[in-house]
């Protein structure tokens, strides 16, 4: 997975300054941002909490492990997602264009971000809901 970050950026250059999430469990995740350094022609993962940047997904995961975020080894390809819920495609599916078996036992996970995504799409795409505004506050919509 040392090359996965660069491969992902080559496939999806619009990911610059976009968030990615490392999911340890269904309810525990860490947010990073993909940043591209034009001068170095290299993508990095910027950890939102520690404010440090890493040259690979595996270096980011290793740093999270060092901060006791989790124990053991985790696959970047299986546990990093472009959305804040793990119902979406992981980076392994995007890079390898394969259907990975879900890392998590339950594939139908309902989270607040996934509900918000669905409702936002409904509001945007249906004139009937045009007057509705979603407001998010500490775990509530």
TrEMBL record:
<protein>
    <submittedName>
        <fullName>6060_t:CDS:1</fullName>
    </submittedName>
</protein>
